[in-house]
């Protein structure tokens, strides 16, 4: 696996502020995000702020549409990669996926408090740009592959609940609505 370290946000960055995470029902979550034409300071500032927001929310990944930005940008930090394995994906695309699939529990910072079991390929190959605009290729498996696929789905307007059976999705959404009323 070749991933260049983009790392968590720089503390001295004036833009290192937590962004608001939009919730289920926000239209931006259901739209295909726009390609990033140039990786510039604005994109790098977004990446910094997304890392900070992801860590504050105790997530493993975050896509730009989740912070109400329709751009093809996502950040990921999945243990055991830990902080040293944090990276950004700009304009990512899955170029290969294994035929083997596995079921695993997923949650989402935009649908807090509920989780569902989703079936995904065990291994994927992703090509993207890093926060410097340099192309990279990621060969991921296990939990990292699951997280990367989850975030790339967000960039296409797909949520993990879309991978659930109609009954499982309805039950999960009922739990989510009950919890939202209790907040």
Describe the fold and architecture.
With 183 residues, the protein is an alpha+beta fold. The chain is 26% helix and 28% strand. A five-stranded antiparallel sheet has the order 1-2-3-6-7. Strand 6 and strand 7 form a beta hairpin. The N and C termini lie far apart (41 Å). The relative contact order is 0.19. The N terminus is likely disordered.
Describe the SSE topology.
Layout: H1 41-56, E1 61-63, E2 73-76, E3 87-97, E4 101-108, E5 111-121, E6 123-129, E7 135-141, H2 142-155, H3 166-182
Antiparallel strand pairs: 1-2, 2-3, 3-6, 4-5, 6-7
User: Quick one: overall form?
Assistant: globular
Q: Which CATH top level class fits?
A: Alpha Beta
Q: What is the string of helix and strand elements?
A: HEEEEEEEHH
Strand content: 25-35%
And the CATH topology?
Peptide Deformylase
């Amino acid at each position: 696996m070749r991933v260049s370290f983009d790392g968590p946000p720089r503390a001295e960055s004036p833009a290192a502020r937590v962004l608001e995470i939009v919730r289920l029902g926000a239209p931006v979550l259901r739209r295909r995000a726009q390609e990033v034409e140039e990786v510039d300071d604005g994109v790098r500032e977004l990446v910094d702020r997304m890392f900070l927001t992801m860590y504050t929310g105790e997530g493993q990944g975050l896509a730009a549409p989740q912070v109400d930005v329709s751009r093809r940008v996502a950040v990921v930090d999945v243990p055991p990669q830990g902080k040293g394995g944090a990276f950004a994906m700009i304009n990512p695309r899955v170029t290969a996926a294994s035929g083997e699939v596995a079921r695993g529990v997923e949650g989402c910072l935009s649908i807090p408090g509920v989780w569902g079991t989703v079936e995904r390929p065990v291994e994927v190959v992703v090509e993207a740009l890093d926060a410097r605009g340099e192309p990279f290729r990621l060969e991921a498996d296990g939990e990292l592959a699951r997280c990367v696929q989850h975030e790339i789905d967000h960039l296409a307007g797909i949520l993990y609940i879309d991978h659930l059976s109609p009954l499982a999705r309805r039950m999960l959404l009922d739990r989510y609505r009950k919890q939202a009323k209790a907040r």
